[in-house]
Amino acid sequence: MSPGRHASDDSSFARSAGGAATRGIILIVVAVLVGVVLIATAVDDTNQITAAGPGTTAPPATAAPTDTSPTTAGDPSAPATTAATPATTAAAAPTDTGAATPTTTAGAVFEPRPNSVVSVQVANTTRVGGAAGRMTDTLKAQGYVTLTAVTDTGGVQAITKIHHVGGYLLEAQKMAGLLSLDPEASVFSMPSNPGATISDYAEPNILVLLGSELAN
Fold first, then answer.
1. What pTM does this model have?
2. Is the pLDDT score of 96 beyond 50?
3. From 3.30.70, 3.30.420, 3.40.50, 1.10.1660, which CATH number describes the 115-210 domain?
4. Among residues 58, 107, 196, 203, which one has the fewest Cβ atoms lying within 10 Å of its Cβ?
């Protein structure tokens, strides 16, 4: 009985040992294959990352200048618009300014009114009787609208003065020239209240205050 058991036990042990060895070899082979696959995969991934890295970085950097360069060089509308604007402005400014000024200046011509529409009154400041009446006749002969000759009680004047209301400067200067007086030194604006010293003041366009040099 004992020897048979030993023989049976030895056979089972040998089979078990043989199966374990086979499984160990298979596991080793599988492990080696898995290692090879993993190494190959890692190498492929590394190559892809290395190749993709510069490739991915380079295109964006290249794309930005490439898109900007053609747009600037190939767009003719921008220079054309910029060139047209100054040309229009430069042409319009001088034309409008130069046309208006000469026309207004050339058309402004000032001349004294005709004697027939200018009223005049002579006031005698001297003690020469009838002098104002005689001067009135002289001016009437020149075509003026003459009013009644009067006397100025404000005092004797050595020099005749010609006073005018607003807007009658040229007419007063013309009358001074007719009487051989200085058109600048003998012409004045109308006194503020000539009626204070002149009786029967008629509010003429021109008032002649007759002085001693023309009284006769």
1. 0.52
2. no
3. 3.30.70
4. 107
